[in-house]
TrEMBL record, chains A, B:
Superkingdom of source: Archaea
Region of interest called Metallo-beta-lactamase N-terminus, as start-end residue ranges on this chain: 181-385
Keyword Transit peptide in record: no
One Pfam family it belongs to: Lactamase_B
GO BP, sorted A to Z: DNA-templated transcription termination
Binding site for Zn(2+) 1: 244, 246, 331, 354
Gene3D superfamilies: 3.30.300.20, 3.30.300.230, 3.40.50.10890, Ribonuclease Z/Hydroxyacylglutathione hydrolase-like (3.60.15.10)
Residue ranges annotated for the K Homology domain, each copy included: 98-165
The organism's taxonomic lineage, starting at the top: Archaea, Methanobacteriati, Methanobacteriota, Stenosarchaea group, Halobacteria
Name of the molecule in the record: Transcription termination factor FttA
Gene name, Swiss-Prot/TrEMBL: ncsA
Cofactor binding note of this UniProt entry: Binds 2 Zn(2+) ions, which are required for nuclease activity.
SUPFAM superfamilies per record: Metallo-hydrolase/oxidoreductase (SSF56281), Prokaryotic type KH domain (KH-domain type II) (SSF54814)
Quaternary organization: Homodimer. Interacts with RNA polymerase (RNAP), interacts with the Spt4-Spt5 complex.
Length: 639, 639
């Protein structure tokens, strides 16, 4: 009997002795980080609301109870009973029975009503039918990404169960080493922005945090080939942890599966879906530009299949000596500050990922409240001594003023924007301003992946700012469903119509004017003197966006756009900053200042050379902590 | 045709075009870092003294010329001719012909006379007989280690040639990467003394520097299992470089071959022989103490077979982007400061190994004169703020006083000493003092490996201090051959005789009284009140030596010695410091101070926590350079 089996046996004995005698325990299995208890008496189990909680706290594990397949009622019977328990207002749109595990997946417009207060309705369902309910939200706006991911995972359910069991046994393996140390190796995004990738390493465990590419520098990828990364074999990684879905953090995650990795990817549920959306688009763009993508869509599917979604605040065992907890990072949907607790009180490391410290319209500000953090790995995008951003309130005023002026002249406002994050923030600004009559209510056309990304946002309102979440639950208050928003899904024809029409606002990708439908919009309305192009996001050097900002008015239209030759740009060009998804210098300092306790060491990463040096030096002088501005390919040892 | 072959072909064309038309070039091969040119006209080749030198400088390679086997004269004829060329005073003791490579190994008591002024006699030999002569010294004192190593290498000659050719092709492979960086990973001996091991790593190349154990802490071995060491496979190492033969630097070198390593070990010739002696003894001690050694003698033989001996000052290509040069370190026989030149002027790193900065009786002081060194990895054994040693002159006076007093009383002086280094230093002190009449000429008995180690010293007088080297060349002045030195080779019986006799001096291993014949000497004379035990070397905490120093006079005699139970120690106990093989604090500071140019960065290693911190801080404050006191398992990136 292996050590893992012996441990499972011990756990089973504990469970048997803890539950009342008349409740049978037929099997206990690992499923990823969770423990699944199979019972022939699921209804009895469910009738004691505290039982699972007691077991979980006794065993210090997340526990799911499932019915032994032998005792399952017929799905057709169960369906009726379930529907009679759930209030009609919940808006159940689908029930999906899985006899192999005794689970029933309930898709509903209002999942909260299926769950009930403290899970009371869920327990009632089990008490009635024995099946274990799992609830997902029906996207308020239809999202092909969400439905593709869900269908794919349904189809791969059986293989996924095998994967999760294997991962579970791996997580709960016996510790092998008496040594105690913690190391971080920097594989990318040090003294640069892009290609985020770090190795967190103990004598037991090796975890990769993020695996991104470097925008504008194809081929500059993280140093995965060095032995401390995957050089010793991709299978030597225990886990991959993804802080958020932006490509400079996620683009090369699927590549790991080409290299033979077959372990878990821990991320939030929205990060999983957005990663699917963005990496598939990444492949699409690469092939449109005639580059050979480093992997194909089958590896994206592998990545999604290996995702283990975690919610903010879940403390999760991901290795014998490592606990992982995600916290809201305020940057984009599902973005997480990632906290690792090493050993039994040995050491704590947090990776900020990308953060926004203050609340925005979309998200609450980043969480910096951890029981302990000895070392913080902190993003420094705006860490430079002069990197202060305009207050968003002032920025919004400027944007509204531009819109008022342009529309009064009968012009159109063209806003290049990233599909994920900034677009939704701007949508919220526009919706409110129109509702309050501060700007005229004109059509707002959303082009590129913006609509799809917005749909994903509405699928996961738990990840949005409290008041926004509450509004989304009410169809008539969901700001993203406001009438003036129009999803451009009619291609060139629809764009031509819009161009020929009256004043309007167009939000279109790509955010740095490096391809995508924005090129077509430039073709259509770029020559209109009364219209205004308005930049609301960071334009990296060398991009067309940055050139237009700096005054270029002759635009070479290559085959990325739809035109040929050169386009004369007559539009007004405006820039409104202050809508960044990143904390500015003050936000980064505040993030550290308000930590309690503060970390002993801070590694400043994810910023250009001067930003990381400036931030590192400021943190050192202000808080008297040890700070570093690492280079790529260094290894730091803690403990 | 592979890139390596293409390059060899180019080289051959260059050689053909450089040598006169009437000299044929039949083949060109790599043999380790050297280039071997085979010719049918070896005599013509040899007649032009400058030809090889010109080729070497043109190709920037070390070049050896050998006769095409087709044109070799018969060994019996050649032998006669060779003997007629070499002056009789050279004392040739053996000629060994190798028809496969056209080499003749000449063993002589005075190799210099076989070589002649600027190699003139060697060239004369080739001009006469065509064979390529190689000269080795007949040990002035018979050494079983030297003769075993030489016989073994002779026997493995053919396999060794294959190994060298493989290594040669590896060294001269094409560079693969456009990246440029240099990293050092610390695998041991950081904030501690012992288990020296470092990885020097570029995008092309991975080199292990030293691989020692930690005395007094069995099982605390270098972190070879981490991926940046051998975790990615021992075959991922390009080369192993050994600074000197002490076990805390060499003990685990043979283990690498158990792990599958089959590349070169670069070291000096005496280091190779001493490593053989010391690692075999290491296995012997382990098995006597009932421990299971981590490898066996077959791996020691593999290690010796893979040694590529280099002389001080030889600049050697060991990888496409790495040149290695050894310099005298002044610590023990063959010890080397190790200089790496990375890329074509990209970066320079020196590892001090263990050093003695000032001249001693045995060795010239450590060399610190390099064209360039950006980073120095510096030993810090005596780097603490109070680690100043007594001047050796004063120490010698004290030792002589102790000897005078003890022998006057009719007692014996028992000196525990390390076989390699300190014993020979003390022998030189005693020989001179007796010759000059400063102490009475009494027998000096040498027990344990001391005699063998001394024999190895006399085999390589080039590695000794200038004046000592000159004296060794004259039998009647060789201080190690002085009449009073007696090698204890008669076991317990001889020791009993000595113990029963009159005043004498006994030098015996082990140096820290942790086993070996010293235990037997304690048994024989430990109870004599008129005799004196005199410590001349460092006694690590926890060793019996350190306990006796601190006043213990009841000695538990376990089966390491020959006695049983407890021994009452009545001898006087004295300690004379100042004979260390390590630079003291002042020496270490001077080593850095007199470097020109000084390095930008210094990593202080090989010292306990406070020593490395003190030295690091002192170097920073005095020379305003970046200094570090690394932990094990950190990676530093330069460039």
């Amino acid at each position: 009997m292996s050590a893992v089996e012996r441990k499972l046996d011990d756990i089973k004995s504990t469970i048997v002795s803890e539950v009342p005698n008349d409740i049978s325990v037929s099997d206990v299995k690992y499923e990823g980080p969770e423990l699944v208890v199979y019972t022939k008496d699921p209804k009895r189990f469910a009738s004691d609301g505290d039982l699972v909680r007691q077991l979980a706290s006794k065993l210090r594990k997340r526990i799911t109870v499932r019915p032994d397949p032998e005792v399952l009622s017929r799905p057709s019977d169960a369906r009726e009973q379930i529907m009679s328990v759930i209030p009609e207002e919940a808006g159940v749109t689908d029930l999906d029975f899985h006899p192999d595990t005794g689970e029933v997946v309930i898709e509903a417009e209002k999942p909260g009503m299926v769950i009930g207060r403290h899970g009371s309705t869920l327990r009632e369902i089990t008490q009635e039918v024995g099946w274990t309910p799992e609830v997902v939200r029906t996207p308020p706006i239809e999202s092909s990404t969400v439905s593709n991911v869900r269908n794919f995972l349904k189809q791969e359910r059986e293989e996924r169960r095998d994967i999760l069991e294997r991962i579970g046994r791996q997580i709960h393996r016996e510790e092998m080493s008496d040594d105690e140390w913690v190391r971080i190796t920097t594989l990318g995004c040090c003294r640069e922005v892009g290609r985020a990738a770090f190795i967190l390493n103990t004598p037991e465990t090796r975890v990769l945090i993020d695996c991104g590419d470097k925008p504008g520098a194809e081929g500059e990828v993280p140093y995965l080939q060095v032995p401390e990364a995957l050089g010793a074999g991709a299978s030597n990684l225990d886990a991959v942890v993804l802080t958020h879905a932006h490509l400079d953090h996620s683009a090369l995650i699927p590549l790991l599966f080409k290299y033979g990795y077959d372990g878990p990817i821990y991320c939030t549920e929205p990060t999983r879906d957005l990663m699917g959306l963005l990496t598939l688009d990444y492949l699409d763009v690469a092939s449109k530009e005639g580059r050979t993508p480093p992997y194909d869509s089958s590896q994206v599917r592998e990545a999604i299949k290996h995702c283990i979604p975690l919610e903010y605040g879940d403390v999760t065992d991901i290795a014998p000596d490592l606990k992982l907890t995600f916290h809201n990072a305020g940057h984009i949907l599902g973005s997480a500050v990632t906290h690792f607790h090493v050993g039994d009180g040995l050491y704590n490391v947090a990776f900020s990922g990308d953060i926004h410290y203050d609340d925005t319209r979309l998200f609450n500000g980043a969480v910096n409240d951890f029981p302990r953090v000895e070392t913080l790995v902190l993003e420094s995008t705006y860490g430079g001594r002069n990197d202060y951003q305009t207050d968003q309130e002032d920025s919004e005023e400027t944007l509204k003023e531009i819109i008022r002026e342009t529309t009064t002249e009968g012009g159109k406002v063209l806003i290049p924007a990233f599909a994920v994050g900034r677009s939704q923030e701007i949508m919220l600004v526009l919706e409110e301003a129109m509702r309050e009559g501060e700007i005229p209510t004109v059509p707002v056309h959303l082009d590129g992946m913006i609509w799809e990304a917005t749909a994903i946002h509405t699928t996961y309102p738990e990840y949005l700012r409290d008041d926004l979440r509450d509004r989304i639950f009410h169809d008539d208050e969901n700001p993203f469903l406001a009438d003036q928003f129009n999803h451009i899904d009619g291609g060139e024809e629809e764009r031509q119509e819009v161009a020929d029409g009256g004043p309007c606002i167009v939000l279109s990708t790509s955010g740095m004017v490096e391809g995508g439908p924005i090129m077509s919009w430039l073709n259509h309305i770029g020559s209109e003197e009364k219209s205004t192009m308005t930049f609301v996001g960071y334009q990296a050097q060398g991009t067309l966006g940055s050139r237009i900002q700096s005054g270029w008015d002759e635009i070479p239209m290559n085959d990325r756009g739809n035109g040929r030759g050169t386009l004369k740009l007559n539009m007004n060009v405006e820039t409104v900053d202050g809508f960044s998804g990143h904390a500015d210098r003050q936000g980064l300092m505040n993030f550290v200042r308000t930590m309690n306790p503060r970390p002993e060491k801070v590694l400043c990463v994810h910023g250009d050379e001067s930003s990381v040096q400036d931030l590192s030096s400021a943190l050192y002088h202000e808080f008297n902590m040890r700070t570093f501005a690492p280079k790529n390919l260094e290894t730091f040892r803690f403990k």
